[in-house]
Specification:
It is built from 13 helices and two strands; from the N terminus they run αββαααααααααααα. It has a two-stranded antiparallel ribbon with strand order 1-2. Helix 2 crosses helix 13.
């Protein structure tokens, strides 16, 4: 018996195929192009001025050779910030605007919320007229509004003060004890309609089916407002709250106008007014340090407010 010596035929080699390389994703520059109209002004009119103010705050002007000597600008580091944080009048102004915000912001936002809910109710009439009427005070320039209220506060000119005096109750609106709340009245009158419009616009974005379903379940308009509308309005209230915090720390126009008719408003009555007074007296470095400090305080308070309200919202 002979062995089969026929060689085994090898299997033909298999052809290996390599997967094609994934095509390169083209970068989409469209979002960047659409952001340019915002980004360019933001850099030019926000970042560059803040950066230049910070640079100015690190310098200091010194006079060599006595009172009539030559002025020289030297690098001072953080010395200006030490002076600002040690300035009792500046710190008093910060405390004053914080007290102002603690009272005025909740009152203003509550009024704006109530007005927006009234306009959005089913029984409201002439909605377009009242919407414009509430917004009109914001359309009046701030200086004009402050001058108008200054006329109403001045006991020598105001028919309101004269009428209150006849009934035996004439408060001194321009006195030191009332001045802060007189300014708060002007700010509330001016910005309530603006905040109301933001809140009302948020209400218009809510589908009406939600309200109809609640009414079919027997909910009254008050319950719908409390249980549905106000929780939905939380983002709008957060937005108006941040705007109000920023505006409070930048309080300037109203005290500057009332300063011309009342001695209760000093040059350091608010932080913004203090920085303006320093810059007017050619003390640009300390005014820059004060402005940067105020900007940082505004950022910290706004961020803290957003974190606090976001946590309450469960986010």
């Amino acid at each position: 018996m002979t062995a089969d010596r026929t060689p085994a035929t090898a299997a033909p080699p298999t052809k290996t195929t390599t997967a094609p390389a994934p095509p390169r994703r083209k970068r989409n520059w469209a979002p960047a192009v659409f952001l340019l109209p915002f980004f360019i002004p933001f850099v030019l009119f926000t970042l560059v001025p803040v950066g230049y103010a910070f640079y100015q705050s690190l310098l200091k002007t010194e006079r060599t050779g006595g009172t009539f000597g030559r002025k020289t600008t030297v690098f001072a580091g953080l010395d200006q910030y030490k002076e600002v944080l040690g300035d009792s009048e500046f710190l008093a102004g910060v405390g004053r605007v914080l007290l102002f915000g603690l009272v005025q912001i909740p009152v203003m936002l509550l009024l704006a919320l109530v007005l927006a809910l009234l306009l959005d109710s089913t029984v409201a009439r002439l909605k377009r007229f009242f919407r414009i009427a509430y917004f009109v005070p914001y359309g009046i320039p701030g200086v004009i509004a402050a001058l108008m209220w200054a006329f109403l506060y001045d006991p020598r000119l105001s028919p309101v003060v004269e009428l209150l005096d006849e009934v035996g109750s004439a408060p001194d609106f321009l006195g030191s004890s009332m001045m802060l709340w007189s300014i708060g009245n002007i700010v509330t009158w001016t910005y309530t309609g603006y905040n109301m419009l933001i809140i009302y616009a948020a209400l218009q974005a809510v589908p009406g089916d939600i309200y109809e379903a609640a009414r079919m379940d027997g909910a009254s308009e008050a319950k719908i407002a409390w249980r549905i509308k106000i929780p939905i309005l939380r983002p709008a209230l957060m937005l108006t709250g941040v705007f109000s915090i920023i505006g409070t720390l930048q309080l300037f126009t109203e005290p500057q106008v009332l300063r011309s008719i009342s001695t209760s408003v000093t040059s350091t009555y608010t932080p913004n007014l203090a920085a303006y007074s320093l810059a007017s007296s050619d003390n640009y470095s300390e005014a820059a340090a004060m402005s940067v400090t105020l900007a940082l305080a505004t950022f910290v308070l706004s961020f803290a407010f957003l974190k606090f309200t976001g946590r309450k919202d469960g986010s």
